[in-house]
Amino acid sequence: MTQGKRVHSIVSRISRGFLMRLVVSLLAVNLLLFVNAVLWSAYSAERAALGGAWQANLNRYLTPQPGVPFPQKLETLTYEFSLPGGAVHRVAAGPVLQTMLRAMAGLAAAEALLVFLQYRGAKRRVNFLTAPLRQMAFTAQQVSRERFDGEKAHALEHAIERLSVHSPAARLSTGDSELAGLETAVNNLISRMHDAYRQQIRFVSDASHELRTPISVIRGYADLLSRWGMDDRKVMEESVLAIRNEADNMQRLVEQLLFLARGDAGHTPFAPVPVDLNALARETGEEYALISPEHDWRVKEEAKTPALGDEAMLKQALRVLADNALKYSPPGSAVTLRAYTHENGMACLSVQDNGAGIRPEDLPHIFERFYRSDPARGRGGTGLGLSIAQWIAQRHGGYFDVFSREGMGTRFTLFLPPAEQAGAAVEDGAG
Fold first, then answer.
1. Span 308-326, mean pLDDT?
2. What is the pLDDT of residues 109-166, one digit of tens each?
3. CA–CA dist 216, 213 (Å, integer)
4. How far apart are CA 80 and CA 82, in angstroms?
5. Which positions ≥6 away from 268 have C-beta within 8 Å?
6. DSSP, residue by residue, 196-248
7. Which of 209, 299, 309, 324 is the most buried (most CB within 10 A)?
8. Separation of alpha carbons 230 and 228, rounded Å
9. Pick among 3.30.565.10, 3.40.50.1370, 3.60.20.10, 3.40.50.300: CATH of 273-430
């Protein structure tokens, strides 16, 4: 096997192994959720009918209505149970199971989308990694043309075979100075492979964490509906509203994941045009004055601040910053939006609040995906907003400057290249 094929095989095994572990893990979680929901529903029915603690000596049966065609059998299932010698209690199990299956179908659809995103991401990373592979293959061909003696060739072969794709410290080393260039190329490639693998593991872990809470809430209210919702209109309305809110949270999370995935793959439409940042700040301030009138929204307008960019993206980034200011500053406090030209010639958009501020140890991580400085994770966001804002800044060839003090507030400033430089930055970003 050539060196290029060997390393490509390593990349493919990592991607396939990761995706298979993800699918198996999700299937196991789904099965566990379904079994727990069925057992809890049966226990609730028995306790409601018999009272007291769970009893192991019950006679239990799950029977369909005779003579009903197979597709309708699920609707007619009846759960029957009784104490030895006691009366038989019957509960309609069909509607409960149908509700559970619909909930599991929705969960499976969300998980399928997650797996698809991971597949696309893994595929993109493989394509990214194959670029240096060609160079490495060329280097390997050049090395093969050299006149090595048998001992040197065997030393290189054994060193490659000893590499472990699962060890972050794996390094190719033969001790031969003539192979130093090839060793460096292979070791750099292995480091990039492990970095990509760690990013995949972290992404799945964080996404699973974010999906776990709404799934648990939906499941809890589904159980509530199955027990009392059919007879209590207030419980039904509360449950439906809660399930709808959690579904909206999951939809927002999936949409943000799709935005980042498309952006990483280079598939997000980007249409730069001349933009007046003062007008953008004014429009956003007016919107948020209606959304949250309990805050004092201020807009500092200066001389016209032109920039070249995608207006929809820039407004999305500004909304992310305004949302953060809204969440982390108390009612009645001021939030200031400002557009201006910095002394270095760059066009700037800034949002400043007088809220809680950011701890110094959290500042280096605030643009990481799913990172939130609040340990309770209870602010209602997804932890992706600032990651999206940073991607937008980078796509425009700009960057963020953040100034924050605990208890005093935070100022986010988006720096954009001057209009005459923005075109070159946009072309570089597209490449």
1. 90
2. 887 877 777 766 665 665 565 566 556 666 666 655 554 455 566 666 666 666 665 5
3. 5
4. 7
5. 259, 262, 395
6. HHHHHHHHHHHHHHHHHHHHHHHHHHHHHIIIIITT-HHHHHHHHHHHHHHHH
7. 309
8. 6
9. 3.30.565.10
* Nearest one of 355, 128, 383, 103 to 217, comparing CA atoms: 103
Beta strand 334-341 with 399-405 is unpaired
Helix (H, G, I), strand (E, B) or coil at 426: helix
- Distances in Å between the Cα of 271 and the Cα atoms of 137, 274, 309, 336, 424 are 38, 10, 7, 28, 14
Q: Encoding tokens for residue 264? A: 């990483």
User: Looking at the predicted structure, is the pLDDT value of residue 335 above 80?
Assistant: yes
Where exactly are the structural domains of the chain? 3-35+99-265, 273-430
Please give the single-letter amino acid code of residue 39.
L
H/E stretch holding 343 reads none
CA neighbours closer than 13 Å in the CB half-sphere of residue 392: 27
The predicted model scores a pTM of 0.48
